[in-house]
Amino acid sequence: MQTEGPIDTNFHSHSPGYWPIEAMDQWGDYKWQLKNAVKSLEGIERHIQLTEEERAGILLSGTRLAMSITPHFFNLIDKNNPNCPIRRQVIPRVEETWDDPQEMADPCGEDSHMPVPGLVHRYPDRVLFLVTDRCGSYCRYCTRSRVVSGVGEQHLETQWEAAFEYLEKTPQVRDVLLSGGDPLLLSDARLERILSRLREIPHIQFIRIGSRLPIFLPQRITPELCEMLKKFHPLFISIHANHPKELTCEVRAALGRLADAGIPMGNQSVLLKGVNDSVEIQKALVHKLLMCRARPYYLYQCDLIKGSSHLRTSISKGLEIIEGLRGHTSGYAIPQYVIDGPGGGGKIPLNPEYIVERDETKVVLRNYEGKQFTYPEPQSCIAK
Length: 384
Ligand SMILES: *Cc1c(COP(=O)(O)O)cnc(C)c1O
Description:
CATH superfamily of the largest domain: Aldolase class I
CATH topology of the largest domain: TIM Barrel
Largest sheet: 9 strands, mixed
Oligomer: single chain
Bound molecules: pyridoxal-5'-phosphate
Strand content: 15-25%
Shape: globular
Radius of gyration: 22 Å
Order of helices and strands: HHHHHEEHEHEHHEHEHEHEEEEE
C-alpha cells in the first residue's frame, strides 16, 4: 500500500492548486467556494484520476450522503496517492454500500432523545441543537448522515419555536451546543438571531458552535462574522480537523481571527483507518493545532455509522495513540479519547491503563516510560 511520505509539519497554502490562476480573484470569497464545490463525477475527474472503488462510490452516493468538496479542501488532495488521507475523508468509496449488521443509521441514539425535533437532550445540563442539515463538504463517516445533505431517508425538521420554548422552560440546561449540519453555513444575520434568542434565556450560561468550516472553508471566517460572534460570549467553537495536512496557512489565519475574537477553540477529531491512525500523524496534528490556538478536545472512536467499516479501526489503536502522546508531549496537546456508547450511551472516556496493581494500602503505577512508582494510600483512609 502506498503511503504518504514523511509527515510535513509546516503550514502551506495550496491555491490555486487544481484551479486556473484566474480563479484566484474570487478564491477568498466563501460564496464562490460554495458555488464551485465539486459535486459530480465529471467535476472530480476534471482534476484527478479516480480509482475503481472511488468511481463506483461516487456513482452510488446519491442516495446515502451527497458528495460535495470545497475547492479549498479539494486542493489538499494528492492526485498521485489513491490512499491520500484527504481523499478517504470526502470522496465516496464503494465500501460505503457494504452491509454490516452491526452498523446503524442513528448510532448515537439521537432520535430517541429529542424532546422537540432538532433538539437532542441526553445529558442533564446541556443540549445539542441541530440548526441546519447542510455542510461545507460531507465527511464520509458522518454520524448524522441519516439527516445531513438532503439525499438520505430522513429529513431534519427542526421546530424552532418549540425548541426555544423547551429551552426557556428547562432551567437545568446551562449549555447549548449548536450543530447540524454546519451552523456557520447560516448567514451572519440568521446566526445572530439564533444566538440573540438563546442569550435572552437567563439560565443558558454557555454557548458553543460545532463547525468544520474553519477547515473546509476558512474563507467563511470573515472579520464581520467574528465581530458578530464576539457579542455572545462566553462562546466556544469546536472545530474538526483529522490530519495535519488540513491545517494550512488559510486555516491558521481563520483560526487566528476566531482566537483574536476571544473564542476558545477545541478540536474534535475522529480516529479513521488510513487517515490518522498512527501516533506520528496524531502528534503532528495536535502540535499544529496548538500552533493555531485550538486545543485538542476529543478523539472519537468512529461511530458504527452505516457504510463506515472501511474507515473504522480498533480501540487498541486509539489507546496506543493516547499512550504515545501522554508524557511524550504537552498535556495541552492531548485529547480525551471517547466512544459514543452505541445506541445512545453518550460519550464514554477510554484511557490506557496506568495502574499496575492496587490494594487497600497502595497503588502501583507505571509512568510513560514504563517505570513503576508506588503511591501509599493515606493511613487515615485504610480500613482498620
Ligand atoms: C457530545 C454531545 C454533547 C456535548 O458533550 P460534551 O462532553 O459536553 O462536549 C451534548 N449533547 C449531546 C447529545 C452530545 O452528543
